[in-house]
Each structure stands twice: as structure tokens, then as C-alpha cells.
Amino acid sequence: MSKRIYVLISFIMVLAMIDFVDAQNTVQQLPIIQTKYTADPAPLVYNDTVFLYTSHDEDDAMGFKMQDWLLYTSTDMVNWTEHGVVATLDNFDWVPYNNGAWAVQCIERNGKFYLYCPMPGGVGIGVLVADSPYGPFNDPLGKPLIKQGNLDIDPTILIDDDPQLPDGQGQAYMYWGNPKVHYVKLNEDMISYSGEIMEEPTTPKNYQEGPWVWKRNSHYYLAYASTCCPEGIGYAMSNSPIGPWEYKGMIIDASEKTRGNHPGIIDYKGKSYCFGHSYDLLKKTTPKFYERRSIDMDEMVYNPDGTIQNRHYWSVEGPEQVEPLNPFNRVEAETMAWSEGVKTRFETEWEGDFDWARGKKIADHLFVASINHGDYIKVCGVDFANGAESVEVSVSPVYGGIIEIRVDKINGPIIATVEVKTTRQEGIWSTFTAPVIDIKGVHDMYFLFKGEKDLFYFDWWKFR
Fold first, then answer.
1. 33, 286, 296, 386 from 62: Cα distances, Å
2. pLDDT class of 167 with cuts at 50, 70, 90
3. What is the DSSP string of 104-128?
4. Helices (DSSP H) in 203-347: which residue ranges?
5. Sign for the pseudo-dihedral over CA of 262, 376, 459, 284
6. Host domain of residue 440
7. Would you give the DSSP letter of residue 202?
8. 227: DSSP letter
9. Helix, strand, or coil here: 17?
10. Contact 277, 297 (CB under 8 A)
11. Whole-model pTM?
12. SS3 sequence, 413-428?
């Protein structure tokens, strides 16, 4: 081998190593939830916040194993905060099974929140009502709202806008079905309907299931799981909420990376977004197929004529952050853009000392658990402004360990090191504080955990 060839090969190897290191330092953003398997995204914009209702595939699911619905929120479209279970099949006394919590949608009207829940196997579509988007939700009917047959799945709601009305809202419609689209007019109470249940005579091309209907600039849109199998996300347009629907194309192409799909589409802070789901998180751990899905999301772009630009697949980096995160407010540990290794856990706990005279003081607690050496949480776009002096973390030590807080990259500069000691009683939540080195401006931030195993539980953090 000549010296020139040897030098060239060495140079190529160095470039490859640089690319490998950069790849190791690049943390992906999608799927947007990593601590649980989530599917069937149903986003709702309310009070400047995106509320994302999801179905939930259990960690040990082989086929569909779905018992409850979860809630996540975001104000920046990058960092998502889990709020745990928002409703379960137990909310419906008339449901005869504990596995079948399929795709839902939540809609707000007149200060109430309505969660439409399909029960597969011909049980019907139920509705839950709450005074808050966080719940608690209750069943006002005690029976199905819709009961036709085995195809009563995937309800979606449109409240047609009407500027002539005081609240700017007019007729509400519910759509659902596989392999045909059905619809009905809902009454203003949102828990009853008028007229006949109709089958859409122009069910659009390649429609499978999972409809999502919305209106924008006088155009009516129907997105849905399209083609099979695999399924992408297709869409059709109409001049009327009841069709006829004209197929326009694919928002997200069908891909071998997906088998099923379910769209959820919103406008938020001047941009439009399309949600769906894939098996990408599952495929990071096994080549086998199980029904363990994960929600993805990307910005969606309209053309001047109202049609929607196509995406071949979800991007790795995800959408741009629409506003920075304020670290000087208390931030729940289950707020994250990406994570590795950790899970979230919900427990009902005692608070304070047991007091027979005053009774029991109980608190519901959602926190980050299953924290082991090398696991981490990434939080995007943290605005340290002119700087921070210290950081507080609320943890419950198990074996104890170290939290390294790094910025910009997973192996970036360390701005604080929090030592979590086990000198305090196990199971008690304690606050640990550490000084922060000079840090200013907006940075991505990583909580990198070090120690042995089962280090601690992590509840919240705050900079000062």
C-alpha cells in the first residue's frame, strides 16, 4: 500500500469517526412520547395549550391491549408533559370488558369537555363529560350514544363555525366508521343527536378508518388512515361538512415503518401540525411486531389553494420549538422532549405523618421512575436568560446517585451536579440543591443519571 493511499484511508476513517461521534451526540425528537406506548393522537387546543389525548398500548401488549386513555400537554410543541390516565373503561358501567380503550377525541363546547370513546365489538360509542380538560370525566348517559354494530369506531367531532351565532359556533357533527364514513348531527348538549345516522355516499379513495374532520378558510377536510397495509394518512376536501368528499392525496405516505395509523390535526400559534403514530420506538428494541405504537408529529404546510403538502415520513428532528421553556418555574420531571431508559409511574401516597384525629392525607403522584445508570431526559429550548445560581430537584432516593445537568449535547458542558444521598428515609420526597456554573441564554438541557441501579424517583426541578 502506497503512503498516499494509506493517508487517504486514514483521513476517511477520521471523517467517519467524526460522523459517528456527531451521530452519537444527536438526540432524535420523535416519537414524541418515549416513557409509554401511545397511539391514536387526539390533540385539542385550549387556553393557549395543546392537550393531547391518546390511547395506550400496554408495555407487554402482543395484540391490542388497551385499558385507559392518557393525557399530555405542551405549549411549545417540543416538550410534552404527561398527566397520566385521564379516563378508563371503568368510567362506563355498561362496557362488558377491560380491554378495548380505542381511539378517542375530546372537544370543548360552552365550557364543558366531551370525550367520545369507541367500544369495539359492537358495544357502541360512549361520551364522557368534564368541567376541565384534565378531568375528572363522568358518563352522563349510562349507555352508548351510538350503537350500530362492529364498525362503531374512531369518532371525530366538528363544530362548524357560524359567525351569526353569539358563541361563533354552529352545528356539531360526529363522524366515525370502518370501512365507510358515517356521520350524525349532534345537539348543542353534545350528548344527544338529531336526525338519522347517515352513511357518506362518497367515502373518499383509500379510506380505511380513523377519520379526523376540520375546517379551515371555508374548506372542509377529512383526513384518515389511508391504504392498507401499511397505512399512511390521506385526506379529502369538500365545500360542505357532509360532503361530497374529493380525494386530494397523502399527508404522510404509507410506509413499511407503519401498519396502522390515525391522524390528529390542529392549528397552533400560527402553524399547522399533523399527528399520527408508528412503531419506531418498538423497533429500537426488537425486530418483532407487537401492537405497541408511538405517537409522531410534524408541522403540516398548506398550499395557496388549500391543499396540503406531502411528507414521505415523519422527520427525526420533529417540528421547531415555538417558544422557549422557563426554567425558573417549577417544571415536572415528566416534561421532556426525549428520554432514554426512564418510565413514568403513578401512585397514591400518604403525605405527612399519619394523624388519626385529622384522618388520612392522600396525594396522587406522577413521577419519573426506573432510573438507572446512563439514562437521561432531554428538555429542549431552556431559556436561562441572564443566568441561574442554583438548581433544586425533588427526588425520593432508592440507592442514590448523581444527576449531571448538561447543556447543548448529551456529553456537553456540565452546568450542575446534584448528589442524591440515601441518608434520608427511603420513600420520602426530598429536595436537593446544587450550584450552577455561569450559563446564559437558550440551551437544550440534559439530566444524565449516574450510579448503580434504581437510583431514585424524580418529581420536579427548578432553577433559581
1. 20, 13, 21, 50
2. low
3. -EEEEETTEEEEEEEETTTTEEEEE
4. 280-283
5. positive
6. 331-463
7. T
8. S
9. helix
10. no
11. 0.92
12. CEEEEEEECCCCCCCC
Residues 130, 190: one domain?
yes
- Please answer whether residues 260 and 154 qualify as being in contact, where contact means their C-beta atoms are separated by less than 8 angstroms: no
Q: Is residue 450 part of a domain?
A: yes
295 shares its domain with 389: no
Residue 452 to residue 450: CA distance in whole angstroms: 7
Q: HEC profile for 293-306?
A: CEEEEEEECECCCC
Q: Are residues 336 and 391 part of one domain?
A: yes
pLDDT at 257: 81
Task: Please provide the DSSP assignment of 364-418 as one string.
Answer: EEEEEE---TT-EEEEEEEE-TT--SEEEEEEEESS-EEEEEEESSTTS-EEEEE
354 plus 227 within the same structural domain = no
Sign of CA dihedral 12, 29, 78, 296: positive
Shared domain check, 361 and 240: no
Residue 30: pLDDT band (50, 70, 90) is: confident
DSSP states of 239-260: SSTT---EEEEEEE---TT-S-
Pair (190, 132) in one structural domain: yes
Q: Are residues 295 and 351 in the same domain?
A: no
> Does residue 140 sit in the same domain as residue 229?
yes
| Upper half-sphere CA count for residue 316 (Cβ side, 13 Å) | 4
Residue 371 in grid coordinates: 432510573
Report the alpha-carbon distance of residue 396 to residue 389 in Å, rounded: 23
Inside any domain, residue 52: yes
Number of domains making up the chain: 2
